[in-house]
Design goal:
heterodimer, A: mainly alpha, three-stranded mixed sheet, 9 helices, 8% strand, elongated, B: alpha/beta, eight-stranded parallel sheet, five-stranded parallel sheet, 10% strand, flat, SKP1-like protein (chain A)
Chain lengths: 161, 667
């Protein structure tokens, strides 16, 4: 296995937290700043790179994103933009958060941005009660504390219940 | 698997059980601060601040947001409601304070504030300081009024960042800067006043010029601006600058807030050429004391007439030096539409009557030859300068007189009281002229007359005004009466002949020199017919009051019975001051207000019925008060409905006679 990677520098293997292995082309893997740094710092002796925080389903999505962006030339920005907006469409919150974590961990800025943007869009213009519900945020304020926070930031709460 | 490779991730492996999230878990709150901040960065400032209420985890996450964008408009919709609930708190400014104060140690990349209400400058400074302390890269302030002074330590730190000023509603901008930072002024479309004080600092003119041009381009819609020496210096060679100097299409007033010196000529020429509507040029600091005239000064003035609206010129600290005279000569020759030139004298000139006359003599032929027309002084332009040790009105008045033939060069430094009254008179004249102007405009509109007619009309006005201050000898008799008629005082009623006593009193005033500046009188000759118009009669009122001030003690010896009769009669007019003087007289004699007011025929139109305006037991009656009241009766300058009985007239005349006699005794 190790020799095959060394002989064929174009491929490397990534292993998800649940043990699944993914064979990826090097230029696709380079979309991740983390992997890039690893390869640059002569870690190529590793035949398999484990990604212990990322499950197979998420890693598959991440690599799909990386492949698209690595293969597309810079002139196809419009095409990439439509891919990005399609990419996260209809994705459930669980998958989205896993994607954010993976993108953050693997340092894939483009993916992190679109995922964070998607989460921000969900929060935007919604009353906090609804945001709490969507994200299952547990309200650990006492009613008095909550009122105080609201009062302090009253300006931002204009027009919200 | 290689352990070495794994080492960087080993700490994360402990968390590996938590990496995937199922339904019903608080997924978002378990994200790292960095990820959450990243998410917040995609939210508006308001939205991210609102996340503080989700849970404790979120309370202060927003304090690290790098882009702060607060817009008073979005807040103002609820403005009134909030003000009702708590008038002093929750104002937009308070909120900005809070946001900037609570910001954590991280950088603020961008601060954008749209402020609708004027903000206290100290507070604004504190916001800008806070932004700079957080290494702000882009500061965007929208303000109604702005002062930028980067010589203060605050801005010294801001040199690395670009400052963009976008202010469509900005009316006043004071910009004092060494221009080390990059200032972008844009969207400043409604600017009226700008004060631009740019300093070179240690930059070379080549470096600073484009920045100056940038600033000037930003304020090119300004109507009135004040510029400094360095500003002019930096635009001396506009040919070298890409884009060149912008045009100032609306600029009517330009003030040089520096002593004018030859090296500023180039910059000034450039600025004048780009100001097609300039009407008023003000050398507010006069000439540089070492100024010598050279060809450049002449060059400039030959180009001035290209400003076809250039009507007014003002020069401060005028000393009558050769350089100044040379300049004025050129100005008068070249500025063909110049209507008014105001010279503010330095004491060195105004206290030296010989020199002053010489200057007058030098200026007169130029002004006449160039058909230069003097308007009487417009107090709007000069009143704010009265506090300075200059004598604007004084000189103007004299100049108006001097240039029309009669040279008044007496030293009147102490004569400020009289001047004050003359000023009042002038103001009245000015108002009347304005009315007349309006009428003229209306007439013009009806006639649809062309520009030529318009300017002719204007000339007539100027002439009539000029005649007002002119000597009889110069303006012909016919023209004079026309001029007087044009003044349109109250109504063209016929003035009754003055009583013998009044004529004596006026003659006395004349002899005592109280009409020294009254050029409606023939020189050195007293003619009582000159008082048969409202102008002359008003002049008497002021002269009498001045006389009263100079001869206070006479009041003590006046006949009390006559004075009391005058006092008990009522008020001679509805003018506030006249009423107060009459009330003063009544107060002196202890006459109750209601006993007089209840019988008074003027009561329906009086604002001070039954009011006692003098308090205390003031037993000193000034002659000023007496003179004011009795001259009004003597001149019959009373409202038409007020009938003055003969016994009153007799009392007034007796008092006048006494005043004249006593004055002779005292003298």
């Amino acid at each position: 296995m190790a020799s095959s990677i060394e002989n064929n520098n174009e491929k490397l293997t990534l292993k998800s937290s649940d043990g699944e292995e993914f064979l990826v082309e090097k230029h696709v893997a380079l979309q991740s700043t983390l992997l890039q740094n690893m390869l640059d710092s002569d870690c190529s002796s590793a035949d398999v790179i484990p990604l212990p925080k990322i499950d197979a389903r998420t890693l598959a999505l991440v690599l799909g994103y990386c492949k698209k962006h690595a293969d597309a030339s810079s002139s196809k920005q419009g095409e990439l933009n439509s891919f990005d907006s399609e990419f996260l469409k209809d994705m459930d919150m669980g998958a989205l958060f896993n994607l954010v974590l993976a993108a953050n961990f693997m340092e894939i800025k483009g993916l992190l941005d679109i995922a964070a943007q998607k989460i921000a869009d969900t929060i935007k213009d919604k009353p906090h009660q609804e945001v709490r519900e969507i994200f299952h945020v547990e309200n650990d304020y006492t009613p008095e504390e909550e009122a105080a926070v609201r009062e302090e930031n009253r300006w931002a709460f204009e027009g919200f219940p | 698997m290689d352990d070495v490779v794994l080492l960087p991730f080993s700490k994360h492996q402990k968390l590996s059980k938590d990496v995937t999230y199922g339904e019903g878990m608080d997924v978002i709150s378990s994200l790292s601060d960095n990820v959450l901040r990243h998410i917040l960065s995609f939210l508006s400032t308001e939205d991210s601040i609102r996340t503080s209420i989700l849970s404790r985890r979120w309370q202060y996450l927003w304090t690290s947001i790098s882009d702060i964008n607060l817009d008073d408009i979005s807040w103002s919709k609820e403005n009134d409601k909030i003000k009702d609930q708590c008038p002093m708190c929750h104002r937009f400014s308070d909120f900005v304070d809070r946001v900037l104060l609570l910001h954590d140690a991280s950088d603020i990349r961008k601060l954008h504030l749209n402020i609708l209400d004027p903000v206290n400058s100290a507070r604004l400074s504190s916001w800008i300081s806070a932004a700079i302390r957080h290494n702000v890269q882009e500061l965007n302030l929208e303000l109604p009024r702005l002062t930028i002074e980067d010589d203060r330590s605050l801005w010294a730190d801001a040199l690395s960042c670009a400052v963009k000023v976008h202010a469509p509603n900005l009316i006043y901008l004071k910009f004092a800067s060494t221009l080390k930072g990059h200032f972008h002024l844009c969207g400043i479309s409604s600017l009226v006043n700008a004060s631009i004080n740019l300093l070179y600092g240690d930059m070379s003119p080549q470096d600073v010029s484009p920045r100056v041009i940038g600033v000037l381009a930003g304020i090119c819609n300004v109507k009135s601006s004040t510029v400094s020496a360095d500003t002019l210096l930096s635009i001396s060679d506009v040919e070298d600058i890409v884009g060149g100097l912008p045009t100032f299409p609306n600029m009517t007033d330009l003030k040089l807030n520096t002593e004018f010196s030859p090296d500023l000529t180039g910059g000034l020429i450039n600025l004048l050429e780009k100001s097609p509507k300039l009407e008023f040029l003000d050398f507010a600091q006069g000439f540089d004391s070492d100024y010598f005239h050279d060809y450049e000064g002449g060059l400039m003035l030959e180009r001035v007439p290209s400003c076809c609206c250039f009507k007014r010129f003002s020069l401060s600290c005028f000393e009558g030096k050769p350089a100044e005279m040379h300049f004025l000569r050129l100005l008068l020759k070249n500025a063909t539409v110049l209507l008014r030139m105001t010279l503010y004298c330095e004491p060195i000139l105004s206290e030296d009557s010989e020199k002053e006359e010489e200057v007058n003599n030098q200026l007169r032929p130029i002004s006449l030859s160039s058909q230069f027309q003097h308007e009487s002084s417009n107090l709007h332009d000069t009143h704010d300068r009265n506090s300075k040790p200059k004598k604007p009105l004084h000189l103007l008045f004299k100049e108006a007189v001097g240039l029309s033939g009669k040279i008044e060069v007496e030293n009147e430094v102490e004569d400020s009281e009289l001047k004050k009254k003359l000023r009042k008179l002038e103001e009245e004249v000015r108002k009347l002229t304005e009315n007349r102007n309006e009428r003229e405009t209306l007439k013009k509109l009806v006639k649809k007359s062309n520009n030529g007619d318009g300017s002719k009309e204007l000339r007539t006005i100027t002439k009539s005004l000029h005649l007002l201050f002119a000597n009889n000898d110069v303006g012909g008799g016919g023209e004079k009466s026309e001029g007087m008629a044009n003044l349109g005082m109250e109504d063209p009623r016929l003035y009754k002949e003055l009583s013998r006593e009044m004529v004596e009193f006026v003659t006395h005033l004349f002899e005592k020199g109280y009409f020294r500046d009254a050029n409606f009188l023939p020189r050195n000759k007293f003619d009582v017919t000159c008082f048969e118009n409202s102008y002359g009669r008003d002049f008497v009122k002021y002269a009498a009051e001045k006389f009263g001030k100079d001869n206070r003690e006479i009041a003590k010896w006046l006949s009390a019975s006559d004075l009391k009769r005058v006092a008990a009669f009522g008020c001679p007019s509805l003018g506030r001051k006249n009423i107060f003087f009459a009330k003063r007289l009544r107060h002196f004699f202890g006459i109750q207000e209601d006993t007089v007011c209840s019988k008074c025929i003027l009561k329906p139109s009086c604002k001070y019925v039954n009011q006692s305006v003098w308090r205390g037991d003031n037993k000193n009656l000034g002659l000023v008060v007496v003179m004011r009241v009795i001259t009004l009766y003597a001149l019959e300058s009373v409202p038409p409905q007020l009938v003055v009985p003969d016994e009153m007239k007799d009392s007034v005349n007796r008092l006048l006679k006494e005043v004249v006699n006593l004055s002779a005794t005292v003298a």
